[in-house]
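The instructor's notes for this session suggest beginning with a concrete chain rather than abstract definitions. Hand out the sequence below and ask the class to guess, before any prediction is shown, which regions might be ordered.
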Amino acid sequence: MRGPSHCFAWMTTHAFATTTRWGHHLDTGLRRALDLGGGRDYVVHQEGYYALNRDLAWSVDYARFTQAAEGSQLAVASGQPNAALLDALRAVEEYRGQLFEGDPNADWCATERATLADMFAQTLELLAGLHLDRGEVDAAQRAAQRLLDEDGCRESAHRLLMACYARQNQRDQIVRQYRRCVTKLHDELDIAPSTETVRLFRELTGLL
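After discussion, reveal the predicted structure:
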């Protein structure tokens, strides 16, 4: 998802005009970048346009991630938590980092990059909640912590971690996590925790 594979996803639905010489470089570059072999015509030229050969079966992490992430949400909505868990796990496995991460010239995909990052965060949140519902506290904690690593100001991640600590009877950790949340929100956004976060903290600790 950090480069060539997303180009694949774009090219499978787009055709573009270019010179024959550039098209040869494109074909060669794709083969080298993705270690394609077999002598097949991966890029075809028809009526003045180059595109990926749709007669071949393509599979890219970008498409696999979005399909699994969307599938997990649909499974939850239809009351199928086990299917949702499997799809969420698959989506997290397929996510390779932000789209064109580190590329200073990737402003053209900023909107899609943000959309994919948000989809990943939603999937992690869903995964943590599903694990917690199954009593798999350690797995829920790992997913929630990864979500927090992605976005330290995401209150839902702090709440999930507090819920994990409550399942483990670690009251001190609940307090520490809440304080981390308060500090992070104050330092980075200059806001206080939401009513939902404060209420959960009060329910879990009896404080405030």
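Then share the key points. Residues 111 and 124 are 20 Å apart (CA to CA). Residues 4-52 form one domain.
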